[in-house]
Amino acid sequence: MYAKEFIKYVLDSYNMIYQLLGLLVILLISVHISNRVKRLTLVVVVLLFAELFAFNLEKWTQTFEKLSMLRPMLTAVVYSMYPLILICIMQITVRERISPRMFMALLIPEILSIPLFITSQWTHLVCWFSEDNHYQGGALSKWPYILFGYYIAVFLFQNFRYFSKYSRIDRLVISYIVSGAVAGVIYYIAAANHKDYSTIFTDSITLYYIYIYIHMAKVDPLTGLLNRQSYYQDMQMNAKSITCVVSADMNNLKELNDAYGHETGDKALVSAASVLRDYSGNSEHLYRIGGDEFILFYMDRDEQTVVDAIAKMREKMAETICSCAFGYAMHDQDSSLADTVAEADRRMYEDKAAIKGALAGARAAAE
Fold first, then answer.
1. Does pTM surpass 0.85?
2. How big is the CA angle at 355 (ends 352 and 359), to the nearest 5 degrees?
């Protein structure tokens, strides 16, 4: 009888098990996801499987007429695993590495709470179970929810801070995935619904991986900037909002490749992209459209803002191993955006010629 009940609980989780196994398959065949994210996802999948097993096993022990010590132990495991799963998921969604110090700070409330959960059957602080197998709340019965709420708040803060630099559409998608999952958990807690939260976690991770694959199709894998395909799409979609086009082209990529190898050239491209992203003031619309060619679209910005941004980018480029020529053109809504891009390119090539002339003059003077 007990075995049949447990099997029933497992079958009720078929959808979650199916998704988790599907995530493992995606990890095996994925080429867009870094090894670090793959390892973290594998950890999350294992934790979710373990939590699912513990949750269903604890639910099964609720049917016992007499208390089994397995129930308080499993309850402690479930209480402890929810925050840990959330911390691991945060390291997947926020792709910037969390420093060891920050990670340990995140873990402190969890580490302090685990002994509290494990010993609660004897201390009666959080919860305990009577001999006839009934739940009894302790003085700190709300602590698991407070602890989980704390990690939800950290999770939301870190995600929204990280994705604030992404495009508006990307932020909207991530907000839906993250906020939807968190809202579901909050609803369960507020409604005193004792369903398993890990189902929501699994759904959100699945949606996140779908997002990653769609997002990666728009992104240049080397620099992390939007690619040529996104550039053409945004030219059509945002033509009425674009007020200025900036064309940028590296000056010394071929020389770096010839002298030091393509690995150094790649590092220079990444460095140039980083400067453009950090100091353009308009990272939502920055594209790598060729080997060493970049385009920036400015939305609702005046000419002086663009001139100041270009000056800042030149200044920061001088601190790296790369340099870029720049050209810009203000976009008149009555003219073609393609013509504005062509004008920005023409001015960029003029700037490139001037830079080469200045370097040649400097070499001649030195000789």
1. no
2. 140
